[in-house]
Amino acid sequence: MSAKDVAVDPTMAAPGDEFELLTDEEGRWTIVPIDAEGDERLTQWITVDADALVDVDDWR
Predict the structure, then answer these.
(1) Global pTM?
(2) Which residue has the higher pLDDT, 23 or 17?
(3) What is the rounded end-to-end Cα distance, in angstroms, of the chain?
(4) Is the per-residue pLDDT at 42 higher than 50?
(5) Where does the record place the DUF7511 domain (predicted)?
(6) Cα separation of 58 and 60, whole Å?
């Protein structure tokens, strides 16, 4: 996550979405709260390998 990553416009998110998923070339995903702004985008995130993410519908 870097300072130049642009936030998603919260009005464009699907109803019920709380997080934005960003990916990189190495197959890792960074998960950021959609409503995070400024410094929050640099401090309120978690990065996981693609293998760690699952589709909630498939999981259920």
Answers:
(1) 0.55
(2) 23
(3) 30
(4) yes
(5) 24-60
(6) 6
How does pLDDT run across 48-58, given as a tens digit for each residue?
888 887 776 78
The yes-or-no verdict on residue 12 having pLDDT over 60 is no
**Would you say 16 and 3 are in contact if contact means Cβ atoms under 8 Å apart?**
no
Q: Kindly report the number of other CB atoms within 10 A of residue 32's CB atom.
A: 21
Whether the CB-CB separation of 4 and 22 falls below 8 Å is answered with no
Which pair of structure tokens corresponds to residue 59?
Answer: 């999981």
DSSP 8: P
Domain ranges of the chain: 10-59
According to DSSP, residue 41 is labeled H
- Is 8 within 8 Å of 1 (Cβ atoms)? no
Least confident of 3-7, 8-12, 38-42, 45-49: 3-7
